[in-house]
């Protein structure tokens, strides 16, 4: 099993030029079909509205719209082009309170910088293979936080149909 | 005749028996003055299945997981080497940018504090990515100072951070001296934050 990057499009929102280049380079090396990048959350939202991506990777601190505001905008079912889009937050903030805040905003996964290509790949896989349903309350729309992320290793391949 | 519903717990039972929640807590030796909050109805909650469309195209079962991971990581590591080779000037540029922003720091202005905090955070991220931990420490110390001290942030200590960051990325920088300066800045920030408590 692998991530079929050749089928996937990404938006990378990251204001730090080094990290933006690095994440784009990783995704392209993985074989991503399309990677669009931007330094701010508002532009990321505009890119999603132009053509929704399959996955959004976002930093927390960005000028204009930060990663939390971007996540909330993308999870808004009334206005978002895809409220289910997997959102991976990639940030230097590692404090528990920050992680909880990101989860409450609706991110699908969280990864602390600095990180490695392997950790990034594995976190992306966890996000893409996650089978948790979403929940909608008056103040939240996103992955069901009352359940653990369902992915705990590569899933078994689908059964081969008998002839 | 009023029908009193069966109590759902001991506190409710005591309350029904004439004791208030606070007196019940006092009797149990706990601080009084708090009233038990009435049970709030749970907010409406709808479970929404995620469309399978993405999972179907995102996962392929034509390769062994470990082999696919190793190949993808190997390509990404090669790409990372190229990015790092091109990033020689990046840290110096980021440091100069951060130092320039915090030079005009005005603690009374929320916008100035936000700009400085963001610049310090961005420099920290770049320094971590480029494996220059001493600059990351200085930037983290600056971010902590501005974030926690807010409008009472001492301008002189912010300026000291900016000078130290500039010095740490200069070609003549002495790594051990930079470590000492980073530690001094962290201690100074600790002292300021302790005074403000």
From TrEMBL, chain A:
Source species, domain of life: Bacteria
4-aspartylphosphate: modified positions: 59
Assigned keywords, A-Z: DNA-binding, Phosphoprotein, Two-component regulatory system
Region Disordered, annotated ranges: 140-163
Gene Ontology terms: cellular component: cytosol; protein-DNA complex
Biological process according to GO: regulation of DNA-templated transcription
Positions with biased composition (Pro residues): 154-163
Keyword Phosphoprotein appears in the UniProt entry: yes
Gene3D superfamilies: 3.40.50.2300
Domain Response regulatory: 9-128
Pfam families: Response_reg
InterPro entries registered for this protein in UniProt: CheY-like_superfamily, Sig_transdc_resp-reg_receiver, WalR-like
GO molecular function: phosphorelay response regulator activity; transcription cis-regulatory region binding
Protein name (record): Response regulator
Organism whose genome encodes this protein: Salinarimonas ramus
UniProtKB/TrEMBL annotation, chain B:
Top-level taxon of the source organism: Bacteria
Biased composition (Basic and acidic residues): 7-19
Skewed-composition ranges (Low complexity): 20-35
Residue numbers spanned by region Disordered: 1-51
Name assigned to this protein: HPt domain-containing protein
């Amino acid at each position: 099993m692998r991530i079929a990057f050749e089928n996937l499009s990404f938006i990378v929102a990251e204001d730090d030029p080094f990290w933006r280049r690095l994440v784009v380079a990783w995704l392209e090396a993985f074989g991503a079909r399309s990677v669009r990048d931007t330094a701010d959350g508002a532009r990321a939202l505009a890119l999603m509205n132009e053509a929704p991506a399959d996955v959004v990777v976002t930093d927390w601190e960005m000028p204009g719209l930060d990663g939390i505001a971007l996540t909330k905008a993308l999870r808004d079912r009334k206005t978002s082009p895809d409220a289910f889009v997997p959102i991976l937050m990639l940030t230097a903030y590692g404090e528990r309170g920050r992680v909880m805040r990101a989860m409450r905003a609706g991110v699908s996964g969280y990864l602390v910088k600095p990180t490695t290509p392997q950790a990034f790949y594995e976190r992306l896989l966890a996000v893409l293979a996650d089978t948790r349903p979403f929940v909608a309350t008056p103040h939240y729309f996103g992955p069901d936080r009352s359940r653990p992320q369902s992915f705990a290793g590569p899933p078994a391949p689908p059964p081969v149909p008998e002839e | 005749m009023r029908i009193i519903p069966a109590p759902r717990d001991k506190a409710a039972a005591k309350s029904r028996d004439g004791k208030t929640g606070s007196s019940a807590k006092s009797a149990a030796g706990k601080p009084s003055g708090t009233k038990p909050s009435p049970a709030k109805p749970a907010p409406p909650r709808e479970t929404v299945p995620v469309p399978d469309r993405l999972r179907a195209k995102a996962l392929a079962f034509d390769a062994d997981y470990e082999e696919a991971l190793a190949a993808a990581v190997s390509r990404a590591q090669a790409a990372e080497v190229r990015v790092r080779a091109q990033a020689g000037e990046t840290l110096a540029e980021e440091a100069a940018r951060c130092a320039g922003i915090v030079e005009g720091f005005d603690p009374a202005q929320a916008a100035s504090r936000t700009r400085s905090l963001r610049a310090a955070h961005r420099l920290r991220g770049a320094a971590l990515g480029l494996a220059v931990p001493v600059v990351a420490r200085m930037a983290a110390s600056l971010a902590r100072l501005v974030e926690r001290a807010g409008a009472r942030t001492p301008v002189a200590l912010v300026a000291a951070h900016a000078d130290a960051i500039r010095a740490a990325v200069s070609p003549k920088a002495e790594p051990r001296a930079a470590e000492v300066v980073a530690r001094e800045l962290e201690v100074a920030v600790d002292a300021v934050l302790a005074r403000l408590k």
